[in-house]
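Q: Convert this sequence to structure tokens.
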Amino acid sequence: MTLFKLNPLAAACAAALSLSAGQALALTAFEAPDVDIYLSGASAPQNLLGEVANKLFDSSQGIFVYHDNNGSTNNFGDDGRSYRAYFGVVKADPSIKASLHGKKVLLVNRAKGGSVWGVNPVARAEAIATMKIDSASCTLNTGIYRCPEVGNDLTPTADNRVPDFGVSDVEPNMFKGPYNVEFGADQLDPTEAVVFDGTQFGASSLMMGIVATNAVPDTLPISRAEYGAMLSGLITDWGNVADGSISGPVAVCRRVQGSGTQASYNWFFNNFPCAQNSLHGTAASTPPARMADSAGYDSAHAGTSADPILIDPSAGYTVVENPSSGNVRDCLARAQSGTDHTFTGDDGKVYKVRFSLAPATKAIGVLSLDSLNSENGWSFRALDGAGRINPATDAFECTNADQLECGIAPTKANHREGRYDFAVELSFQYRNTTAGASALGGLKKDVADEFIELIGDPAVLSTLAAGPKEATIALPINYDPTTNSNVAKATHYGNTCAPLQKFF
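A:
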């Protein structure tokens, strides 16, 4: 299959702004669409939604942009983290399916909760929370409509909506219990899993990264075995890392279960769910540590804004399970600066990590490389050795006198060649024809297919902002790496548990 062609969010926003300010629109913001389609799952496509809109929609008709308001009417800085949407008229372009020409399409994307929300609810046709887009609910701010979330994942309401297709950092088969399913849910059983047969599409490869706060010297060589042991709670003090040059409790800023990023780390460092114990039928791998494993975990609180559950990192080994990558970045920044980190977990409870009790905490994190250029008191580190990506220059640096201590740089050049192998292949999926009435079909299927084609196109990926662009590359199963430098030379062929194979 071919790949998606996307452009930065800013371009679509600028188009919407210039049109709304300078000319009459043929389309209005809240009229009924011909196709209203809902994509849920990983946050990676958010970086490309604007370019998809530009490629699909006729700008002369108007392109409207919608972000969730994150439950706040006054704070615009946190808009669009969980939901984004675009509304436009499809171009009459020969590269686009004729069935869609002139159709008014509303594409709603949910990134809340991470990748598993692009798998289980899609397969089961489960109605989940969404963003409400209408004139009574949304307000215009600098060219973008701010709209509320409606519905409830834990206690479904009439506002909930079934996602039409899903996206995940890894393929659906990786979301197994007990470590890779969301709060309060279980994995797909074999009869449920077949609804994706023939409708899974690999789009692009995304680099994952080892990160650490500035309190951890970038001259400290860290092996993948040591990093994995810290994630699992087998190493709880920095004094047990190879050269013993530093000490102090380890803190882990990780993602919640069900996150594709967390599933990627569970695979790479613990081989879950790839390793299976044939004698007992259970995972033969060490489980990732949880918040309740923290030495300073204090659950004797209501878990509300007024009375959050407390975690004291000064007490020792600490784990923080964050609901989004933005929360992980905030966790790392606050660990370094010594300011408290407050967030709402996937269980709906409020947590406060009291980093003010332990300034300059030596923390590691769980992030993909598309968080480059978001560093604030932390940096991406080398794999299996010393060195870091300098946040000021985006260049890899290793100043160790013994160059043998320098690790594998987390760069796109190494990713393309297969040398940096901590990367996953983005998967899109929808229900197939064996799933009866819930199968995706008609114009919705046509929109999904166009979207999937665009979002892995190397030309589209080259339009990403600097951080995501460095982290993402097209797959050789779709494009020829000998004719395009934005295509990887190695792939898992959509099977994370298979060896990485290089043929070019």
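Confidence is low (pLDDT under 50) at residues 1-24, 277-283.
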